[in-house]
Design a protein that fits this description.
Structural class: alpha+beta
Number of domains: 4
Helix content: 25-40%
Number of strands: 28
Shape: elongated
Distance between the termini: 82 Å
Radius of gyration: 29 Å
Number of helices: 15
CATH class of the largest domain: Alpha Beta
CATH superfamily of the largest domain: Nucleotide cyclase, GGDEF domain
């Protein structure tokens, strides 16, 4: 067998190890900067750890290789091995090592190992490796310069597409018209247009509104609304990513909710998962082809930056062992083996110094274990094929604009009314706040004031309610006679909208013809439910819907009824200032087991 050839380059960097790790582990960006070719990935099944067959060009040769999952330990190293199918090499390994030094300096070592298929190709492999490493060195130095100077860590694409200025101008004009009158939204729209004009192809290949908003220092909701408005304006296209609950990367992407099924499968983790709209479905965007034809890649589908909640990952071969190291800081984690086996792993002082596990199918695992900071976690496997294992943080903050967030916005209901779920699909939402209203004595009003006057009053009262619901971030689900059902992504926003409606309705009753003969009764309840398409709209069903409607049914004229827990949350956030709240009251609701503790809120003296 021909001996392998290993070459390396060491780069002395001025940036600290954390900054360099964050920048370099984004291998999609790094591979673009180095000048690598795009890669086509085809799913692989079988007993090897590789989940994809990759096709690309390396060193002027067309190659295909089995892409193993990356291995890494946070802030220390990351590496990947590729088993070549044909071509001049049998295998190729790339390893990046981070060596912190004095005064915050860091040395980065890039090591390239090639296994030539024939001895005669060894000199060619050596020369090609050196050229590749020189490109890596230049890219790392540019990264280091940017980090040291406090500039964006973005490395320019080797090729950057240009925007079609005429189409961009038309889209920008339509977008600004759509958001006019809301300063924060206008600012978000302007930044978005400039982003589409000047950002790299990599940055535009998958636009995520919330990280963008955080980087710009703008409210997340306003940037999300600007992105949605930009779809109708012709600036961006919307896609829905189906996000794996383990690796939290996109397992699939579809252009419409109508193409979403009840479950999805992650090829990398080899797990099937149900689709919860507030965790597993994320809205992402990309410029329309008419505005800018970006290079979406991919150039890589691995790398630690794709899964920043994963602190360590290793390959576990059949008949072999893998070792991970627990982090030095305490916290809640999960140990996961491809295929779905997992356990809750708490890192805490006083925990075990080591943990030994066997990943064979027949061996039972405990549900939970506790290890000390820095503990050794060793896994063995004697049956089945090769797999990868990983140690994940459980407290990682999610920053995706989920389908729950998007479908609860008025702009989505207005502009994407045809983007509905299939009729046979119901998707779970782990939490949504549902608002119900009722106009009191409306039936009597039709009898005493006449149909025309009563109908006019009902329509005018809808105008008051729907404006205030939208102002507080809610969206109309449907009207039912003279009642309103609305949804809010934030529980307290629903309370805030209810109190605003009580305040506004006092003025409405004083000025509207026959207004003094009626009032509103409101109820809000937050909890899990399902999203479905019913009668041509996105609707909700489940016990949370029933509870919200029942709470509204217990309200008296001029009251908003909520649970005690929701009232406490609203009080803690300062929303109940200027309102009066009743003492807690236990009520029995039809169809609900046990008593529910409620608070009655009215406009009036502060608590």
């Amino acid at each position: 067998m021909t001996a392998s050839i290993t070459t390396e380059v060491r780069v002395a960097c001025r940036a600290d190890v954390c900054s360099l790790w964050d920048a370099m582990t984004d291998t999609e960006r790094l591979n673009r900067a180095v000048g690598m070719e795009r890669v086509r990935f085809t799913p692989l099944e079988g007993a090897t750890a590789a989940r994809y067959l990759a096709s690309t060009r390396l060193g002027g040769f067309s190659v295909a290789y089995e892409e193993n999952p990356y291995e890494w330990e946070y802030l220390k190293y990351f590496r990947v091995y590729r088993k070549m199918r044909g071509g001049p090499a049998r295998g190729l390994a790339v390893e990046y090592l981070f060596e912190p030094g004095r005064d915050g300096l860091t040395t980065v070592c890039v090591r390239l190992t090639v296994e030539p298929r024939f001895a005669l190709l060894a000199p060619v492999a050596r020369v090609s490796s050196r050229g590749t490493l020189r490109r890596f060195e230049r890219a790392i130095r540019r990264l280091d310069d940017a980090l040291t100077a406090g500039r964006s860590i973005a490395v320019d694409d080797v090729v950057k597409s240009a925007a079609a200025e005429a189409a961009l101008a038309r889209a920008a004009q339509a977008l600004q018209a759509a958001v006019a009158g809301t300063p924060a939204r206008e600012q978000a729209a302007a930044r978005l247009v400039e982003h589409v004009r000047t950002a790299t192809d990599f940055e535009l290949s998958r636009i995520r509104p919330y990280p963008l908003a955080d980087a710009w220092g703008l409210p997340r909701r306003e940037v999300l609304v600007a992105c949605l408005e930009s779809v109708a304006a012709g600036l961006l296209a919307l896609r829905w990513d189906l996000v794996c609950p383990s690796c939290r990367t996109s397992a699939a992407s579809v252009p419409s909710l109508s193409e979403v099924e009840g479950h999805a499968r992650c090829q990398l983790c080899d797990v099937r998962f149900g689709l919860e709209v507030d965790e597993a479905i994320e809205a992402t965007f990309q410029p329309t082809v008419a505005v800018r034809r970006v290079d979406s890649g991919p150039y890589c589908i691995g790398g630690p930056a794709r899964t920043p909640h994963v602190l360590a990952q290793a390959l576990l071969p059949s008949g072999g062992r893998a070792t991970l190291t627990a982090p030095a800081t305490e916290g809640a984690h999960r140990l996961f083996v491809r295929g779905g086996r997992s356990l809750r792993l708490d890192v805490a002082g006083g925990g075990a110094p080591s943990l030994e596990l066997t990943a064979d199918e027949a061996r039972e695992w405990p549900a939970r274990a506790t290890v000390a900071p820095g503990a050794t976690i060793a896994l063995g496997r004697s049956d089945g094929g090769d797999v990868h294992v990983k140690l994940e943080r459980l407290d990682w903050v999610r920053d995706g604009a989920t389908a729950r967030d998007v479908t609860a916005l008025p702009v989505f209901r207005r502009s994407f009314s045809t983007d509905l779920l299939r009729g046979d699909v119901a998707l779970q939402v782990s939490r949504v706040a549902l608002f119900f209203s009722d106009l009191t004595d409306s039936t009597k009003l039709y009898a005493t004031a006449g149909d025309a006057a009563a109908f006019r009053l009902v329509q005018d009262h809808f105008t008051v309610l729907l404006r205030l619901i939208a102002d507080e971030g809610g969206t109309l689900v449907k009207t039912i006679g003279d009642a309103v059902m609305a949804a809010f992504a934030d529980d307290v926003d629903a309370v805030r909208a209810g109190l605003a409606i009580l305040e506004a309705f006092a003025a409405f009753r004083a000025t509207a013809p026959y207004g003094d003969r009626t009032d509103v009764k409101l109820g809000v309840y937050a909890g899990p439910c399902y999203v479905v398409t019913a009668n041509g709209i996105l609707d909700y069903f489940g016990q949370t819907v029933n509870l919200a409607a029942r709470l509204q049914g217990t309200a008296r004229s001029g009251e908003l009824v909520v649970t005690r827990e929701l009232a406490d949350e609203a009080r803690a956030r300062g929303v109940l200032a200027g309102a009066s709240a009743s003492a807690p009251e236990s009520v029995t609701l039809k169809g609900v087991e046990g008593a529910v503790e409620i608070i009655r809120l009215r406009r009036g003296a502060a608590e």
